[in-house]
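Supplementary Text 2. Reproducibility record for the structural model of the 396-residue chain.

All settings were left at their defaults, and a single model was retained for analysis rather than an ensemble. We include the record here because the model underlies the residue-level annotations in Supplementary Table 4.
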Amino acid sequence: MTVMLAAGCRTPFTATDGSLAGWHPVDLSAAVMNEVIRRGGVSAESVDEVWVGCAEPVGAQGANMARAAVLSAGWPERIGGVVVEAAETSGSAALHAAVAAIDSGSVGTAVVVGVSVASIVVPGASALGRVYGRPWGDGPAARVAESGGFLPPPRAAEATAGLLGIDRARQDRATARSLENRRAAATTGLVPVPAHPGARFNAVRGTLVTSDEHRGLIDDPHKLPPLFVSDGAVTSYSFAPPVDGAAALLLTGGDNTGADAAGTDAAGRDAAADGLGLAELVGTGRAAGNPLDATGGVEAALEHALSQTGADLSDITRWEITETTAAGFLSVCHRLGIDPMSANPDGGTLGVGHAGAAEDIRLTVDGVSASAAGDWIAAISAGTTGSAATLWHRRA
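Retained model, structure tokens:
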């Protein structure tokens, strides 16, 4: 069955303790859910189920927050929700799960959300509490003990950069390009949301936040000390800090637009007027590699996605690749044979910061909204626990 992206949107991404720090993740998810169906020209009654990708489903982001978001959004009580956690690829995994449900015929219209409010639930939160036992136990660590043991993602990116010969100068150049291009870019997928600042941020609550909070440019990044390893190449400049944000996609199966029988939503708009049939999903792939390799599964993930299309690398006209670190981004480009200067033309994660699963979904929201008719868009995320590839074809 054909799966269509009917609409996509996201909040601005803002620094931790910034203008969105006081939003509860459930309510921020509900805000983008209501906006995405408005943009898609459908009513909530048309939605069959909601998938939420969340890399830290604990605390405020735990206890099936997908179902909680349905209730917060005011949607019909019959709509269920599913939370998907797959570390660096949580947003993609949620998207691919929804696609599989539509493809099977069990779901006609789905909403997929990626969310991370790092101001409340910090990265790594799911591994911080020891009351219920240590995550992963002893088996996985024993498997890689002879190779030096597990490395946290930034250290793994550092090791991969060393393996591939990606020096600090290249990382700094990639970071500068991402910062500059992200500042200059505009996205039609951005939806203003009221500020709900943290205690340490001077902002008026309720004032609309209308743009990303971009990271500052640095004149002399080469003067910064290494961030993780004394003689390493990753610095605070080439490492994306955690930020707050949420993003949503509206998916439909085949010719099922999710609109009411008369072709309009509850507000009486023409369902086609807000961009139904925006892009067709043409391929998905996920794979993991060596647990000591920060981007080891990306080649297999993309190969699997391409195998569903009959296309090859030369057909991809727009690459959107996560940039948790510049080293990780450059290693993905190296493995896939992509010119880094052609990927992320409007900047990437390093320009603002990493919003977890929301960043994973942002790749599609911003990539598709900035593409032209006929374009093929590849959204690629990669990390130590796995990689994901999603391929879209922009409709005329």
